[in-house]
Amino acid sequence: MNPNRPESYARRSQTYHLHPATAYEVHEDAAVITQYSAQDSLQQLQACALLDLSELSRFGVRGPQAEKILTSEGLPFPAAINQAVVSEPRSLVARLGKTECWVLADPLADKPAQGMLDIRVMNESGCYPLYCQDSHAWFALTGRHLPDLMAKLCGVDLRPDQFPPGAVVQSSVARVSAIIIHHELEGIPVFYLLSDSSSAEYLWKALQDAMQEYAGQPSGLAAFTS
């Protein structure tokens, strides 16, 4: 078995069987797509692209001491609900509720840290972990067509003046409940979409269908540095 293929690892994307990717890189205990096809390019990312980041690390905490737990680990606690802020080194902390935050690894880090906090510390401090690594798929849409593309799938106004970088919304995308985070990677607009793992295949196909109008293509992470 090829050690750089998803099948070699217990942890893999819920849509790995849909990806005819040509190159992977091992991050911890999963194979992350670095090149999806020969069409991968920075220009494609700037226009319209879709990436599967489900193998990358993420975790959540919930409870009255969530802010204390995160700040003790050197992570920021966003000032408002439905806000996301970048930490060092470039992890993204999204606040989804009064006492709930998710932390997403930087996709462009050489070796994204697992970042899992000690579960015993959370429990002792009145917080508990949220296993969003397993419960949710993580996709990324990129490019200048994001607002128009998402208008076909979501009833929320996601134009930059209404949904700037750092904004978070919890809504329906193609009739699937999802968390949408407006972010930027290497200056390229990105919408992170996190949805229930059971709907991952359906949502991936719905996003691909919606992208056709804008000549969108799936991509790998290496395109950001190509």
Task: Describe the 3D structure.
- This protein has 226 residues and is of the alpha+beta class.
- 18% of the residues lie in helices and 32% in strands.
- The chain is built from six helices and 13 strands.
- A six-stranded mixed beta sheet has the order 10-11-12-9-3-13. The chain has a five-stranded antiparallel beta sheet with strand order 5-6-7-4-8. It has a two-stranded antiparallel sheet with strand order 1-2.
- The longest helix has 12 residues.
- It is globular.
- The model has no long low-confidence stretch (mean pLDDT 89).
Q: Main β-sheet, in a few words?
A: 6 strands, mixed
Category from helices, strands and their pairing: alpha+beta
The CA-CA distance between the termini, in Å, is 29 Å
Specify the number of helices. Answer: 6
**Radius of gyration (Å):** 17 Å
In the sheet with the most strands, the strands line up as 10-11-12-9-3-13
Mean pLDDT: 89
Query: What is the count of β-strands?
Result: 13
Strand content: 25-35%
Helix content: 10-25%
Low-confidence stretches: none
How would you spell out the order of helices and strands? EEHEEHEEEHEHEHEEEHE
